[in-house]
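Q: I have 218 residues here and want to know how they pack in 3D. Can you give me a structure?
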Amino acid sequence: MPHPLALGDESKRAVAHHIMANHELQALEVMAWVLLAFPDAPTDFRAGISRVMAHEQRHTRMHMERASRLGLEFGDLPVNCYIWKQTRSFETLLDYIAVLPLVFEARNLDHTLELEAAFQKVGDPRSAALMRRIHEDEIEHVAFGMHWLRALKNPTDTEWDAFCGHLKWPMNAGKSYGDDFQREARLRSGMPEDFVAHVEALREPSNSPQTLRDNKHV
């Protein structure tokens, strides 16, 4: 991803949209895979994920179209399969919920507004507005994840324990936030106060996943 200071260059903004189109498309494909991999999932879950998929389709098109306007067609650059790789460890719906809605999409609550600000700073209000629209959708997607985490977890587990218990290394809760922490957006998504507090605590250097690992706490 181009550095925010490089986004004054139109070609760098095109690259940023190309990368984000790839991320959105991977998320969409993983959601489609979940429908096939877990045919016995609750009907309401299947209906809900289908609505989220419609958003992901729109996000993918928005980024592709913006990249094209900036001179770059989707597919002109190589892409990665990072999100897809995470599906290798999914054995249950809760594995999916912990990783896609509650890590990747929760992190995007921060990244979308970070990029909105960066695009505004370089005089690209169209790209900025695109990021704001996606941010609002991401709140709904995280809410979907929180709802089903509560519905499917062991009743004796807290939301936080259930979330962490379904993250398989190298995925971890420390990947669920960006630089500009959007606390209010998380609360709007239905994350409990204590859940948000746990994520905020991870932002302290002494509580980072790397530090805990080095100290053999995990």
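Q: Anything worth noting?
A: The radius of gyration is 17 Å. The chain has one domain: 4-214.
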